[in-house]
Amino acid sequence: MEKKIILSGIKPTGIPTLGNYIGALRNWRQMQEDDKYCYYMVADLHALTVRNDPKELREQTRSMAALLIACGIDPERSPLFIQSHVHQHAELSWLLGCTTYMGELNRMTQFKDKSQKHSDNINAGLYTYPVLMAADILIYGAHMVPVGDDQKQHVELARNIAIRFNNAFGETFVVPEPVMPKFGARIMGLQDPEHKMSKTDTNPNGYISMLDEPAVIMKKFKKAVTDCEPTIAYAEGRHGCNNLLTIYCACTGKTMAEAVAEFEGAGYGKLKVAVAEAVIAEIEPIQATFKRYMDDEAELDRIVKKGAQQAGERAQLTLDKAYRAVGLR
Ligand code: TRP
Question: How far apart are CA 62 and CA 242, in angstroms?
Protein backbone atom coordinates (compact mmCIF):
# COMPACT_ATOMS: atom_id res chain seq x y z
CA MET A 1 0.00 0.00 0.00
CA GLU A 2 1.31 3.45 -1.00
CA LYS A 3 1.25 5.60 2.08
CA LYS A 4 -0.02 9.14 1.74
CA ILE A 5 2.63 11.67 2.65
CA ILE A 6 1.71 14.52 4.98
CA LEU A 7 3.76 17.61 5.73
CA SER A 8 3.04 20.59 7.88
CA GLY A 9 4.90 23.33 9.69
CA ILE A 10 4.43 26.03 12.27
CA LYS A 11 6.49 29.13 12.93
CA PRO A 12 8.18 29.36 16.32
CA THR A 13 6.81 32.80 17.03
CA GLY A 14 5.12 32.87 20.40
CA ILE A 15 3.06 30.24 22.14
CA PRO A 16 0.28 28.81 19.95
CA THR A 17 -3.28 29.57 20.93
CA LEU A 18 -6.19 27.25 21.43
CA GLY A 19 -7.20 28.35 17.93
CA ASN A 20 -3.93 27.08 16.43
CA TYR A 21 -4.40 23.85 18.34
CA ILE A 22 -7.97 23.16 17.28
CA GLY A 23 -7.44 24.54 13.76
CA ALA A 24 -4.23 22.70 12.98
CA LEU A 25 -2.09 20.97 15.61
CA ARG A 26 -4.78 18.58 16.76
CA ASN A 27 -5.18 17.49 13.16
CA TRP A 28 -1.48 16.83 12.92
CA ARG A 29 -1.79 14.34 15.74
CA GLN A 30 -4.86 12.68 14.27
CA MET A 31 -3.25 12.26 10.86
CA GLN A 32 -0.60 9.90 12.19
CA GLU A 33 -2.38 6.77 11.02
CA ASP A 34 -1.13 3.58 9.42
CA ASP A 35 -1.90 4.63 5.86
CA LYS A 36 0.02 7.90 6.21
CA TYR A 37 3.57 9.05 6.77
CA CYS A 38 3.87 12.48 8.36
CA TYR A 39 6.67 15.04 8.43
CA TYR A 40 6.30 17.89 10.90
CA MET A 41 8.58 20.85 11.23
CA VAL A 42 9.22 24.02 13.16
CA ALA A 43 9.50 26.67 10.45
CA ASP A 44 12.31 28.77 11.89
CA LEU A 45 13.37 30.17 8.51
CA HIS A 46 9.89 31.53 8.02
CA ALA A 47 10.14 33.29 11.38
CA LEU A 48 12.92 35.51 10.01
CA THR A 49 10.57 37.45 7.74
CA VAL A 50 9.74 39.78 10.61
CA ARG A 51 12.39 41.40 12.82
CA ASN A 52 13.52 38.91 15.36
CA ASP A 53 15.58 38.63 18.48
CA PRO A 54 18.14 35.81 18.02
CA LYS A 55 18.03 34.59 21.61
CA GLU A 56 14.26 34.56 21.60
CA LEU A 57 14.11 32.67 18.30
CA ARG A 58 16.47 30.02 19.62
CA GLU A 59 14.35 29.56 22.77
CA GLN A 60 11.05 29.58 20.95
CA THR A 61 12.22 27.04 18.41
CA ARG A 62 13.00 24.69 21.26
CA SER A 63 9.72 25.25 23.06
CA MET A 64 7.76 24.82 19.85
CA ALA A 65 9.40 21.44 19.25
CA ALA A 66 8.56 20.42 22.83
CA LEU A 67 5.01 21.62 22.42
CA LEU A 68 4.51 19.64 19.21
CA ILE A 69 5.51 16.46 20.99
CA ALA A 70 3.22 17.42 23.86
CA CYS A 71 0.35 17.90 21.40
CA GLY A 72 0.77 14.30 20.31
CA ILE A 73 3.32 14.25 17.51
CA ASP A 74 5.06 10.91 17.94
CA PRO A 75 8.63 11.38 16.74
CA GLU A 76 9.16 7.62 16.54
CA ARG A 77 6.53 7.55 13.88
CA SER A 78 6.69 10.96 12.24
CA PRO A 79 9.98 12.78 11.66
CA LEU A 80 9.90 16.00 13.70
CA PHE A 81 12.54 18.52 12.70
CA ILE A 82 13.64 22.12 12.54
CA GLN A 83 13.33 23.62 9.03
CA SER A 84 16.83 25.16 8.95
CA HIS A 85 18.38 21.76 9.80
CA VAL A 86 17.34 20.48 6.38
CA HIS A 87 19.28 22.77 4.04
CA GLN A 88 17.58 21.38 0.93
CA HIS A 89 14.42 23.45 1.55
CA ALA A 90 16.22 26.74 0.91
CA GLU A 91 17.90 25.28 -2.19
CA LEU A 92 14.68 24.05 -3.75
CA SER A 93 13.12 27.37 -2.91
CA TRP A 94 15.45 29.06 -5.44
CA LEU A 95 14.31 26.78 -8.26
CA LEU A 96 10.67 27.28 -7.38
CA GLY A 97 11.12 31.03 -7.19
CA CYS A 98 12.09 30.91 -10.84
CA THR A 99 8.76 29.17 -11.58
CA THR A 100 6.60 31.62 -9.61
CA TYR A 101 5.19 34.87 -10.97
CA MET A 102 5.31 38.10 -9.05
CA GLY A 103 1.64 38.51 -9.92
CA GLU A 104 0.89 35.38 -7.90
CA LEU A 105 2.84 36.58 -4.88
CA ASN A 106 1.17 39.97 -5.09
CA ARG A 107 -2.17 38.27 -4.57
CA MET A 108 -1.22 36.57 -1.28
CA THR A 109 -3.46 38.02 1.40
CA GLN A 110 -0.97 37.26 4.17
CA PHE A 111 1.67 39.32 2.36
CA LYS A 112 -0.75 42.20 2.02
CA ASP A 113 -1.71 42.00 5.72
CA LYS A 114 1.84 41.69 6.93
CA SER A 115 3.24 44.46 4.80
CA GLN A 116 0.60 46.70 6.32
CA LYS A 117 1.44 45.60 9.84
CA HIS A 118 5.21 45.82 9.32
CA SER A 119 5.33 48.74 6.93
CA ASP A 120 8.84 49.65 8.10
CA ASN A 121 10.19 46.23 7.10
CA ILE A 122 8.65 44.98 3.87
CA ASN A 123 11.56 42.70 3.02
CA ALA A 124 11.95 40.35 0.07
CA GLY A 125 11.67 37.36 2.40
CA LEU A 126 8.19 38.41 3.44
CA TYR A 127 7.30 38.48 -0.23
CA THR A 128 8.86 35.14 -1.23
CA TYR A 129 7.70 33.43 1.98
CA PRO A 130 5.11 31.32 0.09
CA VAL A 131 7.82 30.04 -2.29
CA LEU A 132 9.84 28.65 0.61
CA MET A 133 6.64 27.15 1.94
CA ALA A 134 6.05 25.50 -1.44
CA ALA A 135 9.56 24.05 -1.23
CA ASP A 136 8.80 22.69 2.28
CA ILE A 137 5.81 20.88 0.88
CA LEU A 138 7.03 19.72 -2.53
CA ILE A 139 10.38 18.45 -1.30
CA TYR A 140 8.67 15.59 0.59
CA GLY A 141 6.22 14.74 -2.16
CA ALA A 142 3.45 15.62 0.29
CA HIS A 143 -0.05 14.69 -0.88
CA MET A 144 -1.79 16.47 1.98
CA VAL A 145 -0.98 19.56 3.99
CA PRO A 146 -3.03 20.07 7.15
CA VAL A 147 -3.25 23.81 7.79
CA GLY A 148 -5.46 26.40 9.39
CA ASP A 149 -7.63 28.63 7.32
CA ASP A 150 -5.01 31.39 6.86
CA GLN A 151 -2.53 29.10 5.08
CA LYS A 152 -4.86 27.62 2.51
CA GLN A 153 -3.95 30.17 -0.14
CA HIS A 154 -0.25 29.33 0.27
CA VAL A 155 -0.90 25.62 -0.24
CA GLU A 156 -2.90 26.43 -3.34
CA LEU A 157 0.07 28.39 -4.65
CA ALA A 158 2.29 25.35 -3.99
CA ARG A 159 -0.14 23.29 -6.08
CA ASN A 160 0.08 25.76 -8.95
CA ILE A 161 3.86 25.86 -8.80
CA ALA A 162 4.03 22.04 -8.84
CA ILE A 163 1.70 21.79 -11.81
CA ARG A 164 3.57 24.47 -13.75
CA PHE A 165 6.97 22.93 -12.99
CA ASN A 166 5.76 19.46 -14.01
CA ASN A 167 4.37 20.80 -17.26
CA ALA A 168 7.58 22.61 -18.08
CA PHE A 169 10.15 20.00 -16.98
CA GLY A 170 8.34 16.65 -16.70
CA GLU A 171 6.72 14.89 -13.74
CA THR A 172 8.80 15.95 -10.75
CA PHE A 173 6.49 16.96 -7.93
CA VAL A 174 3.42 15.50 -6.29
CA VAL A 175 0.59 18.04 -6.48
CA PRO A 176 -0.42 18.67 -2.84
CA GLU A 177 -3.79 19.45 -1.35
CA PRO A 178 -4.64 21.54 1.70
CA VAL A 179 -6.54 19.68 4.42
CA MET A 180 -8.75 21.71 6.68
CA PRO A 181 -10.35 20.41 9.87
CA LYS A 182 -14.01 19.40 9.50
CA PHE A 183 -14.87 22.18 11.85
CA GLY A 184 -12.96 24.54 14.05
CA ALA A 185 -10.70 25.80 11.24
CA ARG A 186 -11.51 29.28 12.44
CA ILE A 187 -11.69 29.65 16.19
CA MET A 188 -12.63 33.24 16.93
CA GLY A 189 -11.36 35.64 19.57
CA LEU A 190 -13.08 35.54 22.95
CA GLN A 191 -13.37 39.33 23.17
CA ASP A 192 -14.02 39.96 19.49
CA PRO A 193 -15.72 36.86 18.10
CA GLU A 194 -15.92 38.35 14.64
CA HIS A 195 -12.15 38.02 14.24
CA LYS A 196 -9.92 34.99 14.40
CA MET A 197 -8.33 34.18 17.76
CA SER A 198 -4.81 35.59 17.58
CA LYS A 199 -1.85 35.52 19.90
CA THR A 200 -0.99 39.05 18.81
CA ASP A 201 -4.32 40.33 20.15
CA THR A 202 -3.50 43.31 22.37
CA ASN A 203 -6.06 42.10 24.89
CA PRO A 204 -4.82 38.80 26.40
CA ASN A 205 -8.41 37.95 27.40
CA GLY A 206 -9.09 37.55 23.68
CA TYR A 207 -7.11 34.36 23.32
CA ILE A 208 -6.22 31.19 25.23
CA SER A 209 -2.54 30.37 25.12
CA MET A 210 -1.67 26.66 25.15
CA LEU A 211 0.38 27.39 28.27
CA ASP A 212 -2.26 29.37 30.21
CA GLU A 213 -2.86 28.09 33.75
CA PRO A 214 -6.24 26.41 34.31
CA ALA A 215 -7.43 29.27 36.53
CA VAL A 216 -6.56 31.77 33.79
CA ILE A 217 -8.43 29.71 31.21
CA MET A 218 -11.51 29.67 33.42
CA LYS A 219 -11.30 33.41 33.97
CA LYS A 220 -10.93 34.18 30.25
CA PHE A 221 -13.93 32.06 29.29
CA LYS A 222 -16.05 33.66 32.00
CA LYS A 223 -15.26 37.03 30.45
CA ALA A 224 -15.94 35.89 26.89
CA VAL A 225 -18.14 38.20 24.84
CA THR A 226 -21.51 36.69 23.87
CA ASP A 227 -24.88 38.27 23.06
CA CYS A 228 -28.22 39.10 24.69
CA GLU A 229 -30.27 36.29 23.16
CA PRO A 230 -32.13 34.27 25.80
CA THR A 231 -31.26 30.83 24.44
CA ILE A 232 -28.10 29.02 23.49
CA ALA A 233 -28.09 28.02 19.85
CA TYR A 234 -25.81 27.68 16.89
CA ALA A 235 -27.17 30.27 14.52
CA GLU A 236 -26.25 32.79 11.86
CA GLY A 237 -24.77 35.98 13.30
CA ARG A 238 -24.34 34.65 16.86
CA HIS A 239 -20.56 34.75 16.64
CA GLY A 240 -19.68 34.55 20.33
CA CYS A 241 -22.13 31.76 21.12
CA ASN A 242 -21.20 29.79 17.99
CA ASN A 243 -17.54 30.05 18.88
CA LEU A 244 -18.02 28.74 22.42
CA LEU A 245 -20.09 25.84 21.14
CA THR A 246 -17.49 25.04 18.48
CA ILE A 247 -14.70 24.99 21.06
CA TYR A 248 -16.85 22.80 23.28
CA CYS A 249 -17.46 20.28 20.51
CA ALA A 250 -13.80 20.28 19.46
CA CYS A 251 -12.64 19.50 23.00
CA THR A 252 -15.32 16.96 23.93
CA GLY A 253 -15.83 15.21 20.59
CA LYS A 254 -19.56 15.91 20.80
CA THR A 255 -21.54 16.91 17.73
CA MET A 256 -23.09 20.36 17.51
CA ALA A 257 -26.57 18.87 17.86
CA GLU A 258 -25.54 17.09 21.06
CA ALA A 259 -23.97 20.24 22.47
CA VAL A 260 -26.97 22.41 21.68
CA ALA A 261 -29.30 19.82 23.26
CA GLU A 262 -27.13 19.70 26.36
CA PHE A 263 -27.42 23.44 26.94
CA GLU A 264 -31.10 23.76 26.14
CA GLY A 265 -32.64 26.09 28.69
CA ALA A 266 -29.25 26.90 30.23
CA GLY A 267 -27.66 30.34 30.41
CA TYR A 268 -24.29 31.55 29.26
CA GLY A 269 -22.82 31.08 32.75
CA LYS A 270 -23.22 27.33 32.52
CA LEU A 271 -21.97 27.15 28.95
CA LYS A 272 -18.85 29.19 29.70
CA VAL A 273 -17.87 27.04 32.68
CA ALA A 274 -18.46 23.85 30.69
CA VAL A 275 -16.34 25.08 27.79
CA ALA A 276 -13.55 26.15 30.13
CA GLU A 277 -13.58 22.75 31.85
CA ALA A 278 -13.45 20.92 28.53
CA VAL A 279 -10.53 23.06 27.37
CA ILE A 280 -8.66 22.56 30.65
CA ALA A 281 -9.11 18.79 30.41
CA GLU A 282 -7.63 18.85 26.91
CA ILE A 283 -4.76 21.22 27.68
CA GLU A 284 -3.56 20.04 31.12
CA PRO A 285 -1.91 16.79 29.96
CA ILE A 286 -0.30 18.71 27.08
CA GLN A 287 1.24 21.16 29.52
CA ALA A 288 2.60 18.35 31.68
CA THR A 289 4.34 16.66 28.73
CA PHE A 290 5.61 20.02 27.50
CA LYS A 291 7.30 20.63 30.82
CA ARG A 292 8.92 17.20 30.77
CA TYR A 293 10.55 17.86 27.39
CA MET A 294 11.58 21.39 28.31
CA ASP A 295 13.38 19.92 31.32
CA ASP A 296 15.26 17.42 29.14
CA GLU A 297 17.02 19.42 26.46
CA ALA A 298 19.35 16.56 25.47
CA GLU A 299 16.41 14.31 24.65
CA LEU A 300 14.70 17.01 22.64
CA ASP A 301 17.92 17.68 20.69
CA ARG A 302 18.26 13.98 19.96
CA ILE A 303 14.72 13.83 18.60
CA VAL A 304 15.03 16.79 16.23
CA LYS A 305 18.45 15.68 15.05
CA LYS A 306 17.13 12.28 14.10
CA GLY A 307 14.11 13.93 12.48
CA ALA A 308 16.33 16.18 10.36
CA GLN A 309 18.38 13.21 9.23
CA GLN A 310 15.31 11.27 8.11
CA ALA A 311 13.80 14.32 6.45
CA GLY A 312 17.09 15.29 4.80
CA GLU A 313 17.45 11.94 3.08
CA ARG A 314 14.04 12.26 1.51
CA ALA A 315 14.55 15.93 0.67
CA GLN A 316 17.83 15.27 -1.15
CA LEU A 317 16.15 12.78 -3.50
CA THR A 318 13.61 15.37 -4.61
CA LEU A 319 16.21 18.11 -4.89
CA ASP A 320 18.41 15.94 -7.13
CA LYS A 321 15.44 15.11 -9.31
CA ALA A 322 14.43 18.78 -9.64
CA TYR A 323 18.00 19.91 -10.39
CA ARG A 324 18.26 17.31 -13.15
CA ALA A 325 14.83 18.22 -14.51
CA VAL A 326 15.70 21.89 -15.08
CA GLY A 327 19.01 21.00 -16.71
CA LEU A 328 21.55 21.68 -13.99
CA ARG A 329 24.52 19.38 -14.51
N1 TRP B 1 3.43 29.46 6.93
C2 TRP B 1 2.94 28.58 7.95
C3 TRP B 1 2.36 29.42 9.08
O4 TRP B 1 2.60 30.58 9.18
C5 TRP B 1 4.04 27.71 8.50
C6 TRP B 1 4.62 26.83 7.45
C7 TRP B 1 5.85 26.95 6.90
C8 TRP B 1 3.97 25.73 6.81
N9 TRP B 1 6.04 25.96 5.98
C10 TRP B 1 4.93 25.20 5.90
C11 TRP B 1 2.71 25.13 6.92
C12 TRP B 1 4.63 24.09 5.08
C13 TRP B 1 2.42 24.03 6.10
C14 TRP B 1 3.36 23.54 5.20
O15 TRP B 1 1.65 28.89 9.90
Answer: 35
Is residue 89 domain-shared with residue 215, that is, in the same domain?
Answer: no
> Please, are residues 287 and 211 in contact by the beta-carbon 8 Å criterion?
yes
CB 95 within 8 A of CB 322: yes
Which pLDDT belongs to residue 28?
94
Number of domains in the chain: 2
By most ligand atoms within 8 Å of CB, the mutation choice from 50, 93, 133 for ligand 1 is 133
Given a contact cutoff of 8 angstroms between Cβ atoms, the answer to whether 62 and 100 are in contact is no
Same domain, residue pair 279 and 237 = yes
Where is pLDDT greater, at 117 or 325? 325
Mention every residue, 6+ apart, whose C-beta is less than 8 A from residue 38.
Answer: 5, 6, 7, 8, 28, 31, 32, 73, 77, 78, 79
Look at residue 182 and tell me whether its pLDDT is greater than 80: no
Task: Tell me the pLDDT tens digit for each residue of 267-290.
Answer: 999 999 999 999 999 999 999 999
- Cα(242) to ligand 1 centroid in Å equals 27
- Whether the full predicted model's pTM is greater than 0.90, yes or no, is yes
Closest CA to 25 of 76, 80, 106: 80
pLDDT digits (tens, 9 = 90+) for 40-49: 999 999 999 9
Ligand 1 mean position to 157 CA, how many Å? 12
Q: List pLDDT tens digits, range 188-197.
A: 999 999 999 9
The residue range of the domain holding 36 is: 4-184+297-326
